[in-house]
Amino acid sequence: MAFKISAEERQLVKLIRKMPLSEKDTKKWVETIQTSGLTIELAEEIRLKLTDAPEGAKNKVLATVELNTIVNHWRLASQKKNFHR
């Protein structure tokens, strides 16, 4: 059964597909997000791979900023969902 992904996770999947990274990593991450959702560890792994990309990589800086924004929105949404009075 597929995991229902959030809006932030859908945005991250779109971003991952545009990133200047290997097809193998991209496919692995997209499958992980679609089956079990995003985790802090996965977000950190994606960030590290992106920062290790070659300096001349197209849109590396923009992708890094967008990745951080999406991960922060995901964290806020997941914390808000788990908050109970």
Describe the structure concisely for a colleague.
By secondary structure, this protein is mainly α. Helices cover 72% and strands 0% of the residues.
Which helices and strands appear, and what pairs or packs with what?
Layout: H1 7-18, H2 23-36, H3 40-51, H4 60-82
Helix pairs in contact: 1-2, 1-4, 3-4
Structural domain tally: 1
Strand content: under 5%
Tally of strands: 0
Structural class: mainly alpha
Portion of residues in helices? over 70%
The global form is globular
Q: How much is the radius of gyration in Å?
A: 13 Å
Helix count, DSSP H or I runs of 4 or more residues: 4
**Biggest β-sheet strands, sense, barrel:** none
End-to-end Cα distance, whole Å, is: 31 Å
Query: Low-confidence spans: pLDDT under 50, at least 5 residues?
Result: none
Order of helices and strands: HHHH
What is the residue-mean pLDDT, rounded to a whole number?
Answer: 86
